[in-house]
Write a structure and sequence with these properties.
Number of helices: 20
Strand content: under 5%
CATH class: Mainly Alpha
Distance between the termini: 19 Å
Shape: globular
Number of domains: 1
Radius of gyration: 24 Å
Oligomer: single chain
Family: Belongs to the amino acid-polyamine-organocation (APC) superfamily. YAT (TC 2.A.3.10) family.
Order of helices and strands: EEEHHHHHHHHHHHHHHHHHHHEH
GO cellular component, one term: plasma membrane
CATH topology: Amino acid/polyamine transporter I
Protein name: Amino acid permease/ SLC12A domain-containing protein
Largest sheet: 2 strands, antiparallel
Structural class: mainly alpha
Strand order of the largest sheet: 1-2
Pfam families: AA_permease
CATH architecture: Up-down Bundle
Subcellular location: Membrane
Number of strands: 4
Length: 581
């Protein structure tokens, strides 16, 4: 195969062994073709002007303060797409794919869903959601490598590939969603600490958690990934131990245990389903929230050392997360906790044992392990808060760089941190101090209302972008060999994922207007608590259309600017036929 270079007017070729970024080093409006990765990056604006001028040595405090100054540019008024530091390595990304996002949704919120759906209803709901997530992450992995240099990553895909208004609506929703996650996790941390019946004002723990998360993120991408590596390792070890211990308890293997052999006892009485098909429908929104964060392995592509190697590996390991961490652990919970348990969140008499994972162990005569599980749940919640303070500022930065947010937010300091955006997110996180209020569970529910359903819209946007990308490749005559990693589920996998997502939206609408347990009565409060993300997306979309008077539904496939920061994979035979400069 001979590479047709006429379509890449902004690309020059080199075969330098001095590539500093594993095949993604960039020089003036050109890109390096690495002998290891064979990737060309199109239309980049970074520069390489020789050795930097030596800087004077500063003291520790002075160096710390100096790090917050704006990163130097040719254009001192704006941040550049590639200014974020590439600090994320393969080991970090693998652990992120396995554990990031595992927190409130799975470890705490599942209790409420179990009480509404019953054990089999819960498992069916998660199986449907798991299939959808697997299909989506495949599409995200393909696009994540193609556009690895774009800050904000998949939140920018719709703008480039679908429609600017749709892109703005999705970016706005996703930014708000992650900003909400921070105070949501702080409130959850306070609720988790109640397990130990501490007599201290819960806002003290919110403040302590806040300080820890902020200090971690002062380290930028490196601080985030190292903390996530440790926290996710704790989660995986805990869930592994939980599954093993749960199997032993179910089989009656606890000496002098109060229950003996349990088996399918709770599947027979009180039963498999709590509220029939509507109970199953109630699972989808919570499942989406609990899977939220799995896409951050693609969002962080701009800060990865070598996304061409790390993203495919991480996307494949998402299947292990789905099968083991979610489905297997939930099956064990369903064997050990009846859906009528008064300790489940959402049931009458709900108390401090709000996590079904803690209930599963504590209610069967094991005294020490529940404290360990609750401690790991607390670590998990703080881990998600850490992710929120990492992801949300970068999404705000992406909006600012795209002209959809104030220019003062487009600030990246010398350590590659979006400092101004981080400050805005920290201020928003102050909502978490509502934890000491008696209304904290009400606040928890309203904060969750955008996060769960909003995740579905984000996933739909990824799949629509993937379909539009493949359509544009076909119409514009680009061969698929230019794609370094192709989704294992292919082009049609995105259509299946969209169909499942639309099915989930319809089911959630039904549950929203006629909630479980309401005996068919309409409930406006419940509707907005379950469907608030939809009016947010609709208002953002229509607002953009009206403001910019842009009424085009889709960018025509032949007009899509494919080469806007696109990485082009060059097969080895094409490199052999094309002499390198």
């Amino acid at each position: 195969m001979v590479l047709d270079t006429s379509r890449y007017s902004n690309i020059s070729y080199s075969n330098s062994k001095d590539s500093k970024n594993d095949g993604f080093e960039v020089k003036d409006i050109s890109a390096t073709v690495s002998p290891e990765t064979n990737v060309i990056t199109a239309s980049s604006s970074a520069s390489n002007e020789g050795p930097a001028t030596p800087q004077p040595q500063l003291g520790v405090v002075a160096s710390f303060l100096d790090s917050f100054k704006r990163k130097e540019h040719d254009d001192s008024t704006a941040g550049d797409e590639n200014d974020l530091n590439k600090a994320i390595r393969s080991r970090h990304l693998i652990m992120i794919s396995l554990g990031t996002g595992i927190g409130t949704g799975l470890l705490v919120g599942t209790g409420s869903v179990l009480s509404q759906s019953g054990p089999l209803g819960l498992i069916i709901g998660y199986i449907v959601s798991s299939l959808m997530v697997f299909l989506i992450i495949q599409a995200a992995g393909e696009l994540g490598i193609v556009y690895s240099n774009v800050v904000g990553n998949f939140t920018r895909y719709p703008t480039i590939l679908v429609d600017p208004a749709f892109g703005f609506a999705i970016s706005f929703l996703y930014t708000i969603q992650w900003m909400i996650v921070l105070p949501l996790q702080l409130v959850t941390a306070a609720m988790t600490i109640q397990f130990w019946n501490v007599g201290v004002n819960l806002d003290v723990f919110v403040l302590a958690s806040f300080v820890v998360v902020v200090l971690i993120n002062l380290g930028g991408a490196r601080g985030y990934v190292e903390a996530e590596f440790f926290c996710n390792l704790c989660k995986i070890v805990m869930l592994t131990g939980f599954v093993i211990l749960g199997i032993i308890i179910t089989a009656g293997g606890i000496p002098n245990g109060p229950d003996g052999y349990i088996g399918g006892k709770y599947w027979r009485n009180p039963g498999l389903f709590a509220n029939g098909f509507k109970g199953v429908c109630s699972v989808f929104c919570y499942a989406a929230f609990s899977y939220g964060g799995v896409e951050t392995l693609v969002l962080s592509a701009a800060e990865q050392k070598n996304p061409l190697k790390s993203i495919p590996s991480a996307t494949k390991k998402v299947m292990y997360r789905i099968l083991f961490i979610y489905l297997l652990s939930l099956i064990i919970v369903c064997f050990l906790v009846p859906y009528t348990s008064p300790d489940l969140m959402g049931s009458s008499g709900s108390g401090s044992h709000s996590s079904p994972f803690v209930i599963a162990i504590a209610s069967h005569g094991v005294s020490v392990v529940p404290h360990l599980i609750n401690a790991v749940i607390l670590i998990s919640v703080l881990s998600v808060a850490n992710s929120a303070l990492y992801v949300a500022p970068r999404l705000l930065l992406s909006l600012a760089q795209g002209g959809s947010a104030p220019k003062f937010l487009n600030y990246i300091d010398k350590r590659g941190r979006p400092t101004t955006c981080t400050l805005v997110v920290v201020l928003f996180g102050m909502i978490g101090f509502v934890a000491a209020s008696d209304k904290r569970e009400v606040v928890f529910t309203w904060l969750l209302s955008i996060s769960g359903l909003g995740q579905i819209f984000i996933w739909i946007s990824i799949c629509v972008s993937h379909i539009r990308f493949r359509d544009a490749m076909r119409v514009q005559g680009h061969p698929l060999t230019e794609i370094a990693y192709k989704a294992q589920t292919g082009y049609w996998g995105s259509y299946v994922a969209i169909a499942l997502a639309l099915f989930v939206l319809v089911c959630q609408f039904w549950v929203a207007i006629a909630p479980v347990g309401a005996h068919g009565k309409l409930d406006a409060t419940n509707f907005f608590q379950n469907y608030l993300a939809f009016p947010v997306v609709l208002c953002a979309y229509l607002g953009f259309k009206v403001y910019y008077k842009q009424w085009q539904l889709l960018i025509p496939a032949d007009k899509i600017e494919l080469d806007n920061n696109r990485n082009v994979y060059v097969p080895e035979e094409a490199l052999e036929d094309k002499p390198l400069e």
